[in-house]
Amino acid sequence: MAKHPTDPEIEVPSAVDSESYPDSAAVAPSETPPNNRLSRRSFLSHLGAAGLAAAAPPVLASASTPVAPPPVATEEVLPEGTVALTLKVNGQSHALQLDPRTTLLDCLRENLALSGTKKGCDHGQCGACTVHVNGRRVNSCLSFAVMHRNDEITTIEGIGQPDHLHPMQAAFIEHDGYQCGYCTSGQIMSAVSVLKENVGPTDADVKQAMYGNICRCGAYSNIVAAVQQVRHSS
Ligand code: FES
Ligand code: FES
């Protein structure tokens, strides 16, 4: 016990009396903290270093770590939702990037500007979109372009030009095998293919073979006449 500073008769507990305040000695500021405890200063020191490391930009936090160079693009990045393909049309190869849902008809007309092939119904019912795939007639509106990566595609532009007409084109002109002309490219493409098929000799056979090509102008008899002329002259 210590004496009161102004009244010696009064005894007061000593601040360093280890018997009265056994715990106070353990936390006396002048003593070194136990090994498993941090002093306030060292705690703040650690906290500050960690905070700096967390807040610093990555380049500062890892200044000694080599920064990897950005990857070098080795393949062309395609627009989202498209596929790359090459189509061979009229003897020419065309590199394309298409929505895989693009029909062969739309690809020919919209991507390759081969507008001689017509879109009538877009549902396989009129024949205006007829082209040749590997020599056989096909409704291009019913076929996806991506299905023809390895095919030979021929359009009306590929069988003849104004200064060098295919015999079937010339026969259609000679027999007036058209009026408005909208169905005509499909009729001609179908007729060229029909003559390579096992079709009977009569006009009715020709009509039967070309029943998938509709002519709203009703030029059927002249169309048949043109087909038969080419058949007999070749
Ligand atoms: S547009 Fe293809 S069949 Fe009519
Ligand atoms: S010529 Fe007009 S639809 Fe055939």
Features:
234 residues; alpha+beta; Ubiquitin-like (UB roll); DNA polymerase, domain 1; five-stranded mixed beta sheet; two-stranded antiparallel ribbon; 9 helices; 33% helix; elongated; binds FE2/S2 (inorganic) cluster
Characterize the structure shown.
By secondary structure, the chain is of the alpha+beta class. Among the domains are: 76 residues, Beta-grasp domain (Ubiquitin-like (UB roll), Roll), CATH 3.10.20.30; 73 residues, DNA polymerase, domain 1, CATH 1.10.150. The protein is 33% helix and 12% strand. The chain is built from nine helices and seven strands; from the N terminus they run E-E-H-H-H-E-E-H-E-E-E-H-H-H-H-H. The strands form two sheets. Strands 4-3-7-5-6 form a five-stranded mixed beta sheet, with helices on both faces. Strand 3 and strand 4 form a beta hairpin. Helix 6 packs across helix 9. The radius of gyration is 45 Å and the shape is elongated. The site of one FE2/S2 (inorganic) cluster (FES) has 12 residues, from loops.
Q: How would you spell out the order of helices and strands?
A: EEHHHEEHEEEHHHHH
The fraction of residues in strands falls at: 5-15%
**Distance between the amino and carboxyl termini:** 136 Å
CATH fold field value of the domain at 83-158: Ubiquitin-like (UB roll)
Q: Output the strand order for the largest sheet.
A: 4-3-7-5-6
**What is the rounded Rg?**
45 Å
